[in-house]
Amino acid sequence: xxxxxxxxxxxxxxxxxxxxxxxxxxxxxxxxxxxxxxxxxxxxxxxxxxxxxxxxxxxxxxxxxxxxxxxxxxxxxxxxxxxxxxxxxxxxxxxxxxxxxxxxxxxxxxxxxxxxxxxxxxxxxxxxxxxxxxxxxxxxxxxxxxxxxxxxxxxxxxxxxxxxxxxxxxxxxxxxxxxxxxxxxxxxxxxxxxxxxxxxxxxxxxxxxxxxxxxxxxxxxxxxxxxxxxxxxxxxxxxxxxxxxxxxxxxxxxxxxxxxxxxxxxxxxxxxxxxxxxxxxxxxxxxxxxxxxxxxxxxxxxxxxxxxxxxxxxxxxxxxxxxxxxxxxxxxxxxxxxxxxxxxxxxxxxxxxxxxxxxxxxxxxxxxxxxxxxxxxxxxxxxxxxxxxxxxxxxxxxxxxxxxxxxxxxxxxxxxxxxxxxxxxxxxxxxxxxxxxxxxxxxxxxxxxxxx
Length: 452
Hints:
The protein is α/β, with parallel strands linked by helices.
């Protein structure tokens, strides 16, 4: 695809750094390289050079390293020039101003990735994986984004598409011969094939929860009565004093949200108001929010005072806790007056803990990692990031396949079956981006950072 203009942007974040990088993409890049660096010979593609960046007026702006990529062997599929300068925002800004003065246009958010997609350098799932990789907050999220960037999701969908195309071709062959019915053995083969494709879609749709956990972190709710040590536990897990700790009960009126990395997992910690009969309106509101947060939490850390009996929990929360999502932390064991716990819920594990001394913290971290590993199982070598856009298209794909399957079973006309199969094919095209939908592309790439 040929673009009529050359775009440019700073590709590194704002602020001071050792190095900043600027990127230009378009047909002017070769000419820009020769002009800026006053080259007597054209630069060899994909080779780094050291040179003096001189403005259009001839002023020396910086000592830089630059590299020219020739189409189609570049990120965008177009001629591309990358310039690495010193990481002073003033210097990077002056170089960008000069590139614009030389005829480049300021790139829009995500425009480099958009051009890569439009020029066939990647499918839409890979383009989305670029932003997933930039925003990944854990080792597993990075692994999943890299898998998608290398085309794992696209390849799976490509195989599904090829199977669909073969089925459609075989079915439509009978449209031209309405007097002939599908042979029983072919009908059985098509039914079996569609059932396999439906199962594949179901697995991908089910994995969307795991994908959300990779993106956002495991939502881990810290629960307990007032003064059980919830805020102290939060501070111990964070390694700094984030929450105010007081002997006065009910001091946490609203929830606190913080993020930590444990092992390969990103975890959202939510410290909540103590559960009890509230004495004030604001405390009642805090408890209401705790109950509300429990509905969307993935993991629960139930903090108890080891010197007191296990508390009675609100019914709506007790129903959410079980041995696959709850760890009980028996706090204040340093005081030496622990009682035996009697639980009305099933718990994954009980951990003896002291928020004052940190005793039991390593055991708690290990238990939390083990619980997450068991609760969110996935094929380590083939993690897929299914987002809301994919999910909607996969649901449409599954509906179309289910419709085709139902028509097979009721011996409907092959034209109707073929129509459903083609609808499934369109749904795959929507995920991979092989559709003509400018508005959808505008929305998707506008969320990217400038320079990517």
